[in-house]
């Protein structure tokens, strides 16, 4: 019985997510209501409120799921290791982004990707600080780490919004820029 219930919950949440993304393609996020979502997901409002307190809460859940999906990749970075391959790192990240591209573009167009970007930037800075500041503590290095993390995420965000180059070309470019930056701060 629990297995059937779990499948229903998963299916209902997926329908709600799909309804949100479908509606975001049609209209401004600020104009999407719980009624719109319930109708599109083919559920009643009461069912929606079993899972979420409102549209913003739903979006927060989506942001949290994306963060939990991407955070392990960033936590796997080891910039001080001679074995760290910047290109392979960005290739893995790009593969994930490609799978989530439609969702990321919808969130970006509606201005709702900023929370995820900020959380990810904080994570990157924390990781960089743990690995690089152990050896040299300086305000300049801390400032640079903020700059590097913000730059990487800004380039990713810009490409997601406006992918004029291929994912492969973008990955190569991002790896070159980042590798050059890491070499500069390690010297």
Which descriptors would you attach to this protein?
187 residues
Description:
This protein has 187 residues and is mainly alpha-helical. The chain is built from eight helices and no strands.
Topology:
Elements: H1 2-26, H2 34-41, H3 45-51, H4 55-75, H5 86-109, H6 114-132, H7 139-161, H8 167-186
Helix pairs in contact: 1-2, 4-6, 5-8, 6-7, 7-8
Question: Regarding quaternary structure, how should these chains be classified?
Answer: single chain
Output the number of helix runs.
8
Overall helicity: over 70%
User: Overall 3D geometry?
Assistant: elongated
Q: How many runs of DSSP E, i.e. beta strands? A: 0
Poorly predicted ranges: none
Give the percentage of residues in beta strands.
under 5%
Distance between the termini: 61 Å
Radius of gyration using CA atoms only: 19 Å
How can the largest sheet be summarized? none
**How do the SSEs run, as a string of H and E?**
HHHHHHHH
Structural class designation: mainly alpha
Mean pLDDT: 84
Please outline what is shown here.
By secondary structure, this protein is an all-alpha fold.
């Amino acid at each position: 019985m629990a297995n059937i219930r779990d499948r229903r919950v998963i299916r209902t949440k997926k329908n709600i997510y799909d309804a949100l993304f479908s509606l975001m393609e049609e209209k401004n996020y600020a104009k999407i209501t719980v009624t719109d979502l319930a109708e599109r997901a083919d559920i009643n409002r009461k069912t929606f409120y079993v899972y979420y307190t409102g549209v913003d809460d739903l979006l927060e859940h989506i942001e949290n799921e994306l963060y939990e999906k991407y955070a392990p990749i960033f936590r796997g970075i080891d910039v001080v290791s001679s074995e760290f391959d910047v290109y392979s790192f960005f290739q893995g990240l790009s593969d994930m982004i490609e799978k989530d591209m439609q969702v990321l573009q919808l969130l970006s167009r509606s201005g709702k990707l900023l929370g995820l970007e900020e959380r990810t930037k904080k994570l990157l800075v924390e990781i960089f600080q743990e690995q690089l500041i152990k050896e040299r503590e300086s305000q300049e290095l801390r400032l640079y780490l903020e700059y590097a993390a913000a730059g990487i995420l800004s380039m990713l965000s810009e490409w997601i919004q406006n992918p004029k180059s291929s994912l492969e070309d973008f990955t190569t470019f991002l790896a070159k820029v980042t590798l050059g930056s890491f070499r500069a701060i390690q010297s």
